[in-house]
Description:
Helices cover 69% and strands 0% of the residues. It is built from eleven helices and no strands. Helix 7 (115-131) packs across helix 8 (142-164). The longest helix has 24 residues, at 2-25. The chain starts with a helix and ends in a 7-residue tail after the last helix. Mean pLDDT is 88; it is low at 221-225.
Amino acid sequence: xxxxxxxxxxxxxxxxxxxxxxxxxxxxxxxxxxxxxxxxxxxxxxxxxxxxxxxxxxxxxxxxxxxxxxxxxxxxxxxxxxxxxxxxxxxxxxxxxxxxxxxxxxxxxxxxxxxxxxxxxxxxxxxxxxxxxxxxxxxxxxxxxxxxxxxxxxxxxxxxxxxxxxxxxxxxxxxxxxxxxxxxxxxxxxxxxxxxxxxxxxxxxxxxxxxxxxxxxxxxxxxxx
Length: 225
């Protein structure tokens, strides 16, 4: 078990280093040598987990998709908003998420399959829209709306990164949703939804709090001697 734990920690260290280098340099300019130096591991350790720079990039892209799960809401539109807002907040605070987004939008990474994050997020948003069917306007085609939301978010976060290094992303995402959702969601439902710019931070704190409770419940209970 200790050996397995070390392997997991080493893999995480390598991915974190790769994320840092990819975010700073982009896919094409990043090198295995630079990632090795940043990670502080041997070449053998790196190649045990990842056979190439492409696999490293795919690993970072996959980590971006490991989104924290928003608790189920009675209002599915709020659940959709919270999912988008949480991802935006993680983009502000999590280097791994930022690196994954940098890779997915890297126009120079022509040999890298960057479709995964877009397809994955479209599936998530589509599922939430389908669950919110009774809250949507009758003309809405869920698959089209999912693609519009994902594409619009990609543009908004790219603009935020260039202008403010993501510092204004919460406000930009709030503005995006305020413009798009009135054409998607029943007005009576939308009136109850929190679209505030700090929603992502609130949801993040909620999710992390629930995770800590679950971790505490999983810990073995000490018995009195």
